[in-house]
Amino acid sequence: MKSLEDFKAQCDIVKVVSHYVALEKAGSSYKGLCPFHEEKTPSFYVNPVKGFFHCFGCGASGDVIEFVKKIENISFSEAVQKVADICNIDSPLISSDGEFSKYSIFMEKLVKSYAEMLFSSNGKAALSYLIKDRKLDVETLKKFEIGYAPKNSNIVNFVANKAGFDVANLLKYGLVSRSTNGSIYEFFRDRIIFPIKNNSGRIVALGGRVVGEGDPKYINSPENKYFSKSKILYLFDKAKAQIKENDFAIICEGYMDAIAFHKNGFENACAVLGVGLTQMHLESIKSLTNNLLLVLDSDKAGLNAMEKLSLTLSKYDLNVKVLTFTDAKDPDEYFRMHDKKEFKNFLLNATNYWDFYVRMTLKDTSDASKAIKRFADATKWIDSPILRSNLVRIVSKNLMIEENELLYELKIEAEEKSNNKLEKDVKISRMNFEDWIVYLLFANEDIRNKILKSVSPDYLSEFPRKVFNLVNEGHIYPQEILESLTANEGQRFFKIVTKDVNINDFDEALKVVIKKINERKIRSDISKLEEEMKSTKDPEKQRSLQRKMLSLYAVLKGK
Questions:
Q1: Start-to-end CA span in the chain (Å)
Q2: Burial class, 297, CB count within 10 angstroms (exposed 0-12 / middle 13-18 / buried 19+)
Q3: Is residue 476 a contact partner of residue 448, using CB atoms and an 8 Å limit?
Q4: 269 and 235 in contact (C-beta within 8 Å)?
Q5: Are strands 218-220 and 249-252 parallel, antiparallel or unpaired?
Q6: Is 319 in a helix, a strand, or coil?
Q7: CA-CA distance, 297 to 256, in Å (whole number)?
Q8: CATH class, range 236-358
Q9: Per-domain residue ranges for the chain?
Q10: pLDDT in tens, the chain (559 residues)
Q11: Is 336 helix (H, G, I), strand (E, B) or coil?
Q12: Three-point CA angle 150, 155, 157, nearest 5°
């Protein structure tokens, strides 16, 4: 058996490093721009005699295996195999993990057989579906090694017999299953086959899609010691170089979506395999870029998947944006209706992930009070004051509520939940402007009439709007209002109207309230203009909308 040292001595480190970095001769060594940090002057050197690399800028250093392991973000054994492939020599680890080598070679032969089946008479219907319905061409099918497992397929057994792969292994890796009567049948039948590769490009599993419609639409190989959905991203092995070059990764939801991106020139795309984006996925991605674009399906499941990412993403310093489609359910369908130029323009609609998350948690914002409760419930997991402060700022903008007023509402919400008591146990230490509206409605008849005439309830949250409407209907006595409120609302109402407040000038207090309402209305108008700007492509209309927005911002600032 070849030792690791003998193996490294056989390797041409300059050839391996040149696979990733442009090198030029510098004396007895070679130099280039370091791939592990940004620099303009080369400080990265490779010494072919001693077989090591070193960067005088960031300190990265090691042998040929360490270089590939670091730049590809793969395991030691995967790096050894990658080096062996580049140098066209045998890996010293083949004998130490002969099982993986045998498994990998078998999977390559199996995928080749499935690909041949797709272009045979038995694969005619599947090929027609892929070309006519899914708009894939023969070149793309061959590039991504797409195949077909026919009904009552015997391909696995045929390939296994030729490769000396016994039934125990076929069962172990989920390529065949055993029925209740003990007979063996192939796991993938009447399905389009997609090879799933690890980070170094070795086939470790298969994915299967029904031809046309049916459930389950997609299935993957069962997990084993070489395949885990939480570690592997489909097409990541092909996308790595472009992710690094473009400095952003596109994450989509399935095989066809990832292929659609690659087919249209966005080769920095990869797909999750039926699970959410995990910490292990992010660890692989962040070694190449800090910028992510999530393009998951626009159906409920896809949107929920993006929302569930919040806890995972909060642990990383990443720039994450979200893109959802309006006229297509997924990227594959989008690219069947639009070209790549249109998608580049559509990219401008990408939303910051946390803006998207807030909108998902708030849902319907017509009732601010209920929206705040939904936000409070959805964000109980957040223990970072910085993240919470950022989200409060976004909620404030979405609901057109001042941040201090929102914090006050959240404080009451939190105290209610932690104490599990009625609102009578929550002390109102200060009143926000909506509380002042409730207070002034019962201060005296003159100020009540002025409020009913001057204030629009459309821009109030649920509780003050409810009290306002009751008073507007003629219920001017507190006891009448209390009969129409819930227990919590009643306790809050009682605290407000019985609060000991010294007001010398009710009209001045009313001016402040009206000013706050007007500010909320202006913020609402600005949000509508922002949405209108996103939906129009007319440059002249965009400029007109921008001028209106600037005018409204000027009014907000008192100019």
A1: 81
A2: buried
A3: yes
A4: yes
A5: unpaired
A6: strand
A7: 12
A8: alpha beta
A9: 4-87, 98-220, 236-358
A10: 457 888 888 889 999 999 889 999 988 889 999 999 888 899 999 988 888 899 988 888 889 999 999 988 888 888 888 888 788 777 777 544 567 878 888 999 999 999 999 999 999 999 999 999 999 999 999 999 999 999 888 899 899 988 888 888 888 888 988 888 878 888 999 999 999 998 878 899 999 999 988 888 889 998 888 888 988 999 999 998 899 889 999 999 889 999 999 999 999 999 999 778 888 888 888 878 899 999 876 556 655 666 678 888 888 889 999 988 878 888 888 898 888 888 888 888 899 999 988 888 888 887 777 888 888 888 888 877 888 888 888 988 888 887 777 776 676 555 545 444 333 333 333 567 788 888 888 888 888 898 898 888 888 888 889 999 999 998 888 878 888 888 778 878 887 887 777 677 788 888 888 888 888 888 888 878 877 877 777 878 878 887 887 787 777 666 4
A11: coil
A12: 140
Rounded CA separation 511/85 (Å): 77
> Domain 4-87 sits in which CATH superfamily?
Zinc finger, CHC2-typedomain (3.90.580.10)
**Strand order in 269-271's β-sheet?**
269-271, 249-252, 291-294, 319-322, 351-352
- Tokens of residue 146, six digits: 């797409």
Contacts of 556 (CB under 8 A, 6+ apart): 519, 522, 523
Long-range CB pairs of 354-363 (<8 Å, 24+ gap) are 354/387, 354/390, 354/391, 354/394, 355/394, 356/306, 356/322, 357/306, 357/307, 357/310, 357/391, 358/391, 358/394, 358/395, 358/398, 359/398, 360/303, 360/306, 360/307, 361/307, 362/395, 362/398, 362/399
CB 82 within 8 A of CB 74: yes
Cα(111)–Cα(146) distance, rounded to whole angstroms? 8
**What sign for the dihedral angle of Cα 115, 117, 120, 123?**
negative
Distance CA 31, CA 34 (A): 9
Parallel, antiparallel or unpaired: strands 269-271 and 218-220: unpaired
Q: Which CATH class is domain 98-220?
A: alpha beta
Distance CA 340, CA 512 (A): 52
Q: What is the pTM (predicted TM-score) of this model? A: 0.64
Tokens of 235: 């097409």
Q: Is 512 exposed, middle or buried (0-12, 13-18, 19+ CB in 10 A)?
A: exposed
**Distance of alpha carbon 413 from alpha carbon 420, whole angstroms:** 10
B/e letters for 483-496, b = 16+ CB within 10 Å, e = fewer, are eebeebbbbbbbbb
What's the one-letter identity of residue 435?
D
